[in-house]
Amino acid sequence: MSFKKTIITVIAILIVSSCMFILAMIIRGKSDTVSRDQSEQSENTYSSGNVSTDSGYSVPEVSSTQGGTSYDIPSSTPASSIQSSGSPEISQPNTQDVPQWTETNKSGEYYVNTDGIYSRIYALQDSDTVKQYRLNDKVTVVAKTDTDYFKLEDGTFIHSDYLSKNEETLWTETEINGEYYVNSDDVYSRISAIQGSDTVERYELNDKVTVIARTDTDYFKLEDGTFIHCDYLSEEEVKINLGSNLPDYSSLTQNGYTIERINGITYVDGVMIANKTYTLPRSYSPGIQPDAYDAFLEMQSAAEQDGISLYIVSGYRSYDDQEAIYARYVNDDGKEAADTYSSRPGHSDHQTGYTFDLNSLDQDFEYTPEGIWLAEHCAQFGFIIRYPKGKDAYTGYMFEPWHVRYVGRERAEAITDSGLSLEEYYGISSDYSLCVNE
User: Fold this and answer.
1) Do the strands 57-58 and 51-52 form a parallel or antiparallel pair, or are they unpaired?
2) What is the sign of the dihedral through the CA atoms of 42, 46, 49 and 54?
3) HEC string of the chain?
4) Beta strand 383-387 with 312-314: parallel, antiparallel or unpaired?
C-alpha cells in the first residue's frame, strides 16, 4: 500500500512539473514577442502617419523620436526626403518670391501725362496692369518707391515718368460754334485732338455734328468733348447720288485718301472700287483691262521660271454675268450664306476688269506650291490678294487665296507690306447697309 502511494506521488509531481514547465515557456514566449516588437519600434526612425502613396507626400506633420530629439517635418515634405537613420533632412516647401521695394511717404495731386497708360499691381516694370488712365487724368499719390514708381491711394503704382504736377497742354483751342456735316464715310471722332489717338464714335456721310472749338492741330472739338479732324467736316451737306448719272464728287476717306465718284464709278487713290458699299453701273463693261492682263503675263512667265504654273480660271464678268451667278448661289445656299462668298450684281470686283481668279477656287490652294508662290510674289507684279485671310469683317467676303486684284506695283507692295486689306488700308467700308442703291 505504501508502495502504491509512492508511485502516485511521483506521478503527481511529474505532472505538476510538466505543467509548470509549459507555463514557463508560454510566459517566456510572450516576453520575447513584446521585446522584439519594442526593438522593431525603436529601429523605426519615424512614424509613418497618413502617407499618400499616390503622391509621395505625407499629409499630417510627423515626428522623430530618435535620440530623444523631436523634428517637425512640414506636411508638404516629400516622403522620399525622410531618412531611415541619422538626422532627418527637412525639405522646405517652395514659396514664390514676393517683389520688394522701399516706399517713402509722398502726397499730392498729379496728372497723367501720357494717353492710355496703366497702373500696376507692383512697383515693378511688367507686373500685372490694373487700370487704364487717359491723358490729364488726375490721381492722388501717397508714396514714392526706390524703383521710381508713385503709389496711388488705391494701392496701385504708376511709373514716375508718366505723372506730372501740371496738366499737359498738347494743343490750344479757339472757341467757335456751328453745325457741320461729315463729308466722308466711316469717320471716327477721337478722344484727343491728335492723329492716332483712340477712336470714340463712328459717323457716316452727311451726319450733322455741333462744333464748339477748333484746335491748332486742325481738329474740331464736338459738344461731347471728342474731336474730328477738320478735313472730314464741311459747312454744307455733300450732295451726291450713287446712280450712274452722278455729278463729279470728291472727298477724303477715313485714312486721308482722296475718294472720287465719277459717272457712277468710285475711285480711291486712283483705284477703282467695287465692294458691298460702292457699286458699278450696269452699263460699265470694260472687259479685261490691258494693263492688268500684261502684268499677269509677266507674273505667269516669272512663275514658270520657278517651276510654277499659273493660269486664269475666271477674269472679267459683266453685270449680267454676276447677276446670274449670284442668283444661282442664293438659290443653292440662301442669300445670307451667298453674301459671304459671292457679290451682288454691280458690286463684283470682277466687273472692274482688274481681277483674276487663278488655278483653283478652293481655300486649300493657299497651301499648294502655286498658292504659296502667288502670295509671296504677286505684289511684285502689281497684284494684291483681294480678300486676305482673317479680314472678312473689313472686306465683307471670306478668304480667297486665288483671287488677285491689279492695283499697280507701288500700291500693291505698300498694301501687302501693311498686312491690311484694301478696305483697311484706304479707310473705306464694305457693307451693303451703307450702300445708297441697296
Assistant:
1) antiparallel
2) negative
3) CHHHHHHHHHHHHHHHHHHHHHHHHHHHHHHHHHHHHHHHHHHCCECCCCEECCCCEECCCECECHHHCCCCECCCCEHHHCCCCCCCCCCCCCCCCCCCCCEEEEEEEEEECCCCEEEECCCCCCCCEEEEECCCCEEEEEEEECCCEEEECCCCEEEHHHEECCCCCCCCEEEEEEEEEECCCCEEEECCCCCCCCEEEEECCCCEEEEEEEECCCEEEECCCCEEEHHHEECCCCCCCCCCCCCCEEEECCCCCEEEEECCEEEECCEEECCCCCCCCCCCCCCCCHHHHHHHHHHHHHHHHCCCCCCEEECCCCHHHHHHHHHHHHHHHCHHHHCCCCCCCCCCHHHHCCEEEECCCCHHHHHCHHHHHHHHHHHHHCEEEEECCCCHHHHCCCCEEEEEEECCHHHHHHHHHHCCCHHHHHCCCCCHHHCCCC
4) unpaired
**Catalytic option among 366, 370, 400, 423:** 400
Q: Which amino acid is at 219?
A: Y
Catalytic annotation on 370? Answer: no
Q: Is the pLDDT of residue 122 over 70?
A: yes
Sign of the C-alpha dihedral, residues 201, 343, 395, 283? negative
Domains within the chain, CATH numbers bracketed:
103-164 (2.30.30.40), 173-234 (2.30.30.40), 252-434 (3.30.1380.10)
pLDDT digits (tens, 9 = 90+) for 252-309: 888 889 998 888 899 999 999 999 999 999 999 999 999 999 999 999 999 999 999 9
Cα 226-276-332 angle, rounded to 5 deg: 140
225 Cβ contact partners less than 8 Å away, ≥ 6 residues apart: none
Whole-prediction pTM:
0.49
Q: How far apart, in whole angstroms, are the C-alpha atoms of residue 428 and residue 296?
A: 27
Contact predicate 92/72, CB 8 Å: no
Residues 121, 156: contact at Cβ < 8 Å? yes
